[in-house]
Amino acid sequence: MTTLLIAEKPSVARDLAKYLGIARQGDGFITCKQDFVCTWCVGHILEQAQPHIYDEKYKQWRAEDLPIIPEKWIKEPIARTQKQLTIIRNLLKNATGVINAGDPEREGQLIVDEVLDYLEYTGPAKRLWISALDERTIAKGFQKLRDNQEFLNIKNAAICRANADWLVGLNVTRGLTLAAGTRGTVLSAGRVQTPTLSLVVDRDREVENFIKKPYWQLKATVSHHNGNFIATWEPGELAKGVDPEGRLVEEQTANDLVERLTGSTGVIKDRKQTLKKKSPPLPFMLSDLQKKAEDKFGYAPKRTLEIGQGLYEKKKCLTYMRTECRYLPDEMHEDAPRVIAALAKQGLTGADKADPSLLSPAWNTKKQGAEAHHGIIPTEVIPRDLTEEEHNIYTLVANRFLKQFFPDYQYYSTNILVDCLDEHWRAKGITVKDPGWMTLNDQQTKDRPLPAVKKGDPAAIEKIEKEQKTTKPPSRFTEASLQVAMTEVHKYVDDPVIKARLKENSGIGTPATRTNIIAELQKREYLDKKGKSLISTERGREIIDKMHPTLKSPGMTAIWEDALDRVCEGNLGKDDFLEELTRRMAKMVQYALATQFSEIITGKRYACPLCDGYLIRMESKKAKGKFFWICSNGREINCPPRSDNNGAPGAAFAERPTSGPLCPACKEGFLMRLESNNRPGYYFWACSTGKEKGCPLLLDNNGKPGKLMIDPDAPKAPCPHENCKEQIRRIQSAKNASFFYWKCPNPQHKLLQDDNGKPGKEIEFKR
After folding, report:
1. Does residue 767 or residue 156 have the better pLDDT?
2. How many CB atoms lie within 10 A of CB 434?
3. For residue 574, which of 111, 224, 274, 155 has the smallest C-alpha distance?
4. Contact indicator for 420, 430 with CB cutoff of 8 Å
């Protein structure tokens, strides 16, 4: 009886195998004690099938075929991981049970489950769900193995996510590209990509359309018999020169107030003092940590994730990184003393004063969500040999965790209202009662006490300072702040009902995909990066302006994410989710196909000189950087392709000859003089039946057929490159009859010098 444990990554499989006890290392698996075998998936081993797998006709992009909606979804093995899939297939044959040890999130659940489904495994399966890789956490996980079937809803949510991305991305992208007529350039759209771009476009326009306005702030020195204090003028409901936000925008009004009130006597109209408490900030989720690391250390979000993954997988000192939850399960509180002790041994500030008996609001199992994620916290493992970057990220997480074991920050908030000649002046002060967790902050909150006053006391306005300020536009997005916006997308939704639904643990995208989505937007030239700021391009803005309102709405996309959460919780069926999505696809596609783009997207349009079509610039698949032009009606009426002349259409390519010198090899075809795709200006001769008969190519000799390009009787030798089984040939130069070299059929191998009829050193070409 053998139990097969399948992890998501090789490193995790090795950690689990080490805990179980390694007996023998195999090829793609590890045999362990007690009849366990550990193997792994290397991330996704399967991928969504391309459209032409469902029907060969989908290889061509045609409007009449849209939307493409599979009746039955197909998964295919990824070529680079085919070997590992075969290893798992063979291991399953001898397995009496399986343990799904994918990462603790819906994608991790699917990565293993889809392999089991593809290989038609129907035996018993358990689920190991652990959020850290230290020995104690692994042990607790094995003690609490659950039936894998209990996680069916999480798997279904991951399937819905993958299918939704396929449907929207493929159909809308094809629709937009066909509408624009840009066959050489794909106009990419996506369920998460498009609303993310919309966030940036909206912010950029808000910044660029922002009109700076001056306003004035009045601060008075108020004299009281118990001491002076500073108070700020507050406009009344009928105050002149005040904008809707309550800012004093007329300087003359400010001058009048200064002149009228300086030296006047008023009265203390009100005085309140309130004891306030502030709980510790919740533990980090990934986007919070990335934003903090960017602000404090200048780390790009991708780099923060890489560092954190290393601390989770290799150092074992942090819990799972790709989390969208800030809360912690109640049961983990019992581990707090050991974790705090480990932090104290490292000398982390505050660890020696932390009280493990305290229970902050962070401990709340109910707020974790369906996937059982929790905030990022340290484990009881003491890390060794941390780099500066690792130490910085580890300390951020540890510091936030330690704050949970300090008292609330408590302070007295004092509020004094002064009435003088029917104008109000307000002073606010703070007196710290207990700094609590604030002692772990880089900067401490200082007392700002106010004198003891009581209602009815006289007070005089000694002097008034008038300070001019300017309204400021919102900040442009950075990579980190955009990821936070994707996580907290409820802030960009106006509908109060939708906003409330999305506030807790909802957003667009996932921690694992957000960095790649932002990178893809830059690759598509929808976003540009200037310094730290992400700025939408004209191309990106037009895409958003012409996009279907539903697809570009962050709120609507977040509702889809909310629906995925409900699938996780079992409150929404997988089929119901996909049925609703497919119902929307027809409208989205029709909208995309009817879109009219400007030259920003299509490029300058050139009319075809032979018909009523237009010319499209294409890049050669064989020769990168070489372009040509085709007619939009070319397939129907056979308009010839044209050369590229510095970005504009050139002359039509000459038609291939229908006659010529007789081929000396097959004696049937005729020879054609052709120009090389890779070397413009270099010509050679080929037989008109060459592909069928296998006739050799001939060199060009001043416009006439020359000798064979590769002499079949030329000397041969084994290729010297390791693991290459090809034969290299001795070839005479076409330009210099006295120069010979050796060439391998593998184009990646360099040419070799000729050393008296034998292969010599590699030829280094000077650039």
Report:
1. 156
2. 14
3. 155
4. no
* Consecutive H or E run containing 208: helix 193-208
The DSSP call for residue 224 is -
Measured distance CA(55)–CA(714) in Å, rounded: 47
Burial of 54 (0-12, 13-18, 19+ CB in 10 A): middle
Q: What 3 state SS string does 404-454 have?
A: HHCCCEEEEEEEEEEEECCEEEEEEEEEEEECHHHHHCCCCCCCECCCCCC
CA–CA gap between residue 176 and residue 168 (Å, rounded): 12
CATH code at 3-144: 3.40.50.140
- How far is it, in rounded angstroms, from Cα 598 to Cα 179? 11
Three-state secondary structure call for residue 141 = helix
Reported as a single tens digit per residue, the pLDDT across 578-635 is 998 888 899 999 999 999 998 888 877 888 887 888 888 877 776 777 888 888 776 6
Q: How are beta strands 533-536 and 527-530 bridged, if at all?
A: antiparallel
How many Å apart are CA 381 and CA 135, to the nearest integer?
9
Could you give the angle at which helices 554-569 and 574-593 cross, rounded to 10 degrees? 160
Question: Where does 286-405 sit in CATH, by number?
Answer: 1.10.290.10
DSSP of 656-675: PPS--SBPTTTSSSBEEEEE
Residue 767: pLDDT band by 50, 70, 90 thresholds? Answer: very low
Average pLDDT of the residues in 527-546: 95
**Looking up tokens 């004891």, which residue turns up?**
275
Residue-range domain boundaries for the chain: 3-144, 163-208+475-593, 214-279+409-470, 286-405, 604-652, 683-762
Superfamily of structural domain 163-208+475-593:
Topoisomerase I, domain 2 (1.10.460.10)
Residue the block writes with tokens 């105050």: 239
- The residues carrying an active-site annotation are 320
Is the per-residue pLDDT at 751 higher than 60? yes
pTM of the model: 0.78
pLDDT in tens, 45-87: 999 999 999 999 999 899 999 999 999 999 999 999 999 999 9
List of residues 6+ apart from 730 with CB closer than 8 A: 714, 715, 716, 740, 741, 742, 754, 757
The percent of residues above 70 in pLDDT, for the chain, comes to 93
